[in-house]
């Protein structure tokens, strides 16, 4: 019987080892080469390297792909999509390799070129689609729209979730264009008290939208919603991201009904706001927060701070009056942010006359103080 | 003199056009610049650097935002390379529109305060950068200082995974050139595991065929054509199992469930407890023994159709 137990124990150990092997097969790292490794080219390390660039979608050769090794331009692919890196023209050891083409996603990796004879690169179309480009991203204010697959019904206080943006890319692109035309590109006389200075504003922006068919924000996950990391990986240059959702249904009843627009001043490069696609005036108001750091001028439980330089609210009446005199404005226009009917009173002062878009939110213009701040920012572009 | 000047102007314009037409100029659209990506945790206790590194792309304009937090990217002489301002990221400022019954509309505030948030700062890369500091301009307190020399020497953690590169590219290696990752490929582990398990199971089945001096038995069956069971066959083949009729039957197994690891474990533990396993060639043999011996096992693992047949046979017997 003891012998049988011993045999059974051995069998159990063998069985356990088998299970362990199966477990290990699932967790050990894959070798950093695909299984389709071919040994068709041979030779000592350091020889010519052939790079073949293709469009991932239709597998056609891609001309004009620029190659960079350790940030130095190495060459560009020809009409056959091929670029040959000649023996002796590249450094030994691990390098930072980049292959890039306008309209496509970059290939970036740290690799040892000595290990490679040839490299086939499939380029995926960029998810960033230009709408209106007025210049290089580093010389313009870049506004990027990203779709939300959620909306909200304020009357029933329920979040509506869709399988993507309703109407798909076509509808989203149309909503983006309409929103841009009714906000950023709207007649300066409707938006700014000092319209003459604002005539040149539209040319200072680049507009894009992000669409890969898979990545959607959630406009109703918190005040300003959330945007997936996949978006931020590709959009590094956005001065403002607008999370656009289809519509706010019903009526706002209380905080459980969720805000229609909200701004998240999340560092530098990740600043974003959410807004319904058909809320143009509130969109302009939110842009005041997100792009120009303008403060609300209505009285409520919101965030106030004197937003120097060129503030649109001041932390004392004296500062407001001094600023008004300096800018040749009537100092008597300074008034405390308050709402007697709501019993609200703040220790901040504002100057812009009503209807002030930062006060009413649903109509009005950017007043002189707000426009000074906007002008101060846009003058650099 | 004027003619010489005009020729110089033409030459200048031609040179400018030539420069503009070179590939390097064409690629200088700004899309391939280098950036610093620094992530911070901003909470009620202060600001903590979470990660920092470099990546490729265009940085946002640092001059747009305004706020009480002043950021400075400085060189070794503490000279500012880039200066920017941030608002307190713990506050999200929202707005709602209230439609009143009289048709008027008013705005309502909606402020969300989050005690701890993660923020990201994307800045243009500079090889001269040494430090990045965040200062609360209200109190003059330094909130965070980041070593940008370190940041400049590594890729940002937030960068897309490098593995993606390898998933889409096809390498052609020279024989003997090194590869990173495990030397033993995963499929070898998987194969070895399956062989070991199969060996253990087969050996168990073989040893289980031998008579058990303790006189206890479990019956092991492969899935068989139970429906072919006929009265004459029962009588004809029953003799071959007569020797087992004196033994108690502890368990019946149906081998079609062997792919289930949990059942394999159960089988092995039953055997380790002293049960004896006989492997029948098919379901008929198992059911023959049950019919002939009128023995009902304490544990029965069969698929549904076989269980139904088994029940009806036992009831009829």
Question: In sequence order, what are the helices and strands of chain A, one letter per element?
Answer: HEEEEEEEEEEEHHHEHEEEEEHEHEEHH
Shape of chain B: elongated
Rg of Cα set of chain A = 29 Å
Strand content of chain A: 25-35%
The shape of chain A, in one word, is: extended
Radius of gyration of chain B from CA coordinates:
40 Å
Question: What are the segments of chain A in which pLDDT stays under 50 over at least 5 consecutive residues?
Answer: 30-44
SS-derived structural category of chain A: alpha/beta
- In terms of per-residue confidence, which ranges of chain B show pLDDT below 50 for 5 or more consecutive residues? 1-5, 13-31, 173-181, 209-251, 254-259
Number of helices of chain A: 9
Number of strands of chain A: 20
What would you note in describing this structure?
The complex is a heterodimer of chains A (about 375) and B (about 325). Chain A has about 375 residues and is α/β, with parallel strands linked by helices. Among the domains of chain A are: about 50-125, Carboxypeptidase-like, regulatory domain (Immunoglobulin-like); about 130-290, no CATH class. Chain A has helices at about 1-25, 170-180, 190, 195-200, 230-235, 280-290, 315-325, 355-360, 370-380; strands at about 50-55, 65-70, 70-75, 80-85, 95-100, 105-110, 120-125, 130, 140-145, 150-155, 160, 205-210, 240-245, 250, 260-265, 265-270, 270-275, 315, 335-340, 345-350. In chain A, strands 8-12-9-13-17-15 form a six-stranded mixed β-sheet, with helices on one face. In chain A, β10 and β11 (about 160) form a beta hairpin. Chain A is extended. The termini of chain A are far apart. Chain B has about 325 residues and is α/β, with parallel strands linked by helices. Chain B has two domains: about 35-160, Immunoglobulin-like, CATH 2.60.40; about 190-315, no CATH class. In chain B, α6 (about 230-240) crosses α8 and α8 runs parallel beside α9. The longest helix of chain B has 24 residues, at about 185-210. The model of chain B is unreliable at about 1-5, about 15-30, about 175-180, about 210-250 and about 255-260 (pLDDT under 50). β7 (about 120-125) of chain A pairs antiparallel with β10 (about 170) of chain B.
């Amino acid at each position: 019987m003891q012998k049988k137990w011993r045999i059974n124990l051995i069998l159990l150990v063998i069985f356990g080892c088998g299970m362990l092997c199966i477990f290990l097969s699932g967790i050990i790292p894959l070798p950093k080469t695909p299984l389709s490794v071919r040994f068709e080219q041979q030779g000592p390390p350091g020889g010519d390297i052939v790079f073949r660039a293709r469009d991932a979608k239709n597998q056609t050769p891609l001309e004009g792909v620029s190659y960079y090794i350790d940030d130095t331009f190495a060459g560009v692919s020809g009409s056959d999509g091929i670029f040959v890196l000649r023996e002796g023209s590249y450094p030994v050891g691990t390098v930072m390799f980049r292959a890039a083409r306008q309209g496509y996603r970059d290939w970036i990796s740290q690799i040892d070129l000595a290990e490679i004879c040839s490299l086939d690169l499939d380029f995926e179309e960029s998810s960033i689609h230009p709408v209106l480009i007025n210049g290089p991203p580093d010389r313009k204010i870049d506004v990027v729209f990203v779709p939300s697959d959620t909306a909200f019904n304020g009357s029933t206080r329920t979040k509506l979730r869709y399988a993507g943006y309703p109407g798909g890319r076509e509808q989203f692109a149309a909503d983006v264009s309409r929103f841009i035309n009714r906000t950023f590109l709207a007649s300066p006389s409707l938006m700014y008290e000092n319209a003459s200075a604002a005539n040149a504003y539209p040319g200072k922006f680049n507009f894009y939208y992000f669409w890969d068919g898979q990545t959607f924000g959630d406009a109703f996950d918190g005040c300003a919603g959330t945007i997936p990391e996949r978006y931020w990986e590709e959009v590094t240059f956005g001065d403002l991201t607008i999370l656009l959702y289809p519509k706010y249904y019903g009526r706002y009843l209380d905080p459980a009904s969720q805000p229609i627009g909200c701004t998240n001043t999340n560092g530098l490069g990740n600043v974003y706001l959410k807004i319904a696609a058909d809320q143009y005036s509130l969109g302009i108001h939110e842009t005041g927060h997100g792009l120009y750091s303008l403060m609300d001028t209505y009285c409520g439980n919101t965030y106030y701070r004197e937003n120097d330089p060129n503030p649109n609210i001041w932390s004392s009446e004296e500062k407001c009056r001094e600023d008004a005199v300096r800018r040749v404005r009537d100092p008597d226009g300074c008034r405390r942010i308050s709402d007697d009917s709501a019993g609200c009173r703040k220790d901040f002062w504002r100057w812009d006359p009503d209807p002030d878009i930062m006060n009413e939110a649903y109509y009005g213009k950017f007043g002189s103080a707000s426009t000074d701040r906007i002008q101060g920012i846009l003058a650099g572009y | 003199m004027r003619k010489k000047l005009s020729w110089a102007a033409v030459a200048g314009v031609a040179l400018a056009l030539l420069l503009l037409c070179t590939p390097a100029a064409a690629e200088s659209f700004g899309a391939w610049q280098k950036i610093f990506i620094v992530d911070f945790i901003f909470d009620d206790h202060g600001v903590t650097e979470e990660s920092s590194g470099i990546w490729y792309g265009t940085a946002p304009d640092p001059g747009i935002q305004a706020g009480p937090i002043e950021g400075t990217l400085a060189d070794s002489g503490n000279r500012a390379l880039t200066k920017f301002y941030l608002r307190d990221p713990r506050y999200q400022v929202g707005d709602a529109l209230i439609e009143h019954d009289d048709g008027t509309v008013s705005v309502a505030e909606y402020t969300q305060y989050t005690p701890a948030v993660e923020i990201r700062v994307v800045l243009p890369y500079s090889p001269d950068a040494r430090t990045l500091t965040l200062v609360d301009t209200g109190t003059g307190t330094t909130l965070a200082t980041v070593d940008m020399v370190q940041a400049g020497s590594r890729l940002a953690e937030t960068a897309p995974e490098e593995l993606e590169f390898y998933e889409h590219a096809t390498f052609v290696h020279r024989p003997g050139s090194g590869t990173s990752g495990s030397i033993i490929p995963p499929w070898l582990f998987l194969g070895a595991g399956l062989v070991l398990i199969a060996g253990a199971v087969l050996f168990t089945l073989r040893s289980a065929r031998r008579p058990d001096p303790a006189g206890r038995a479990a019956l092991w069956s492969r899935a068989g054509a139970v429906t072919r069971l006929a009265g004459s066959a029962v009588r004809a083949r029953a003799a071959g199992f007569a020797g087992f009729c004196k033994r108690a039957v502890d368990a019946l197994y149906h081998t079609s469930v062997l792919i289930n690891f949990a059942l394999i474990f159960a089988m092995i533990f039953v055997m380790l407890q002293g049960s004896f396993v006989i492997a029948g060639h098919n379901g008929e043999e198992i059911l023959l023994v049950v019919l002939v011996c009128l023995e009902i096992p304490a544990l029965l693992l069969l698929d549904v159709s076989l269980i139904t047949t088994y029940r009806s046979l036992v009831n009829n017997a």
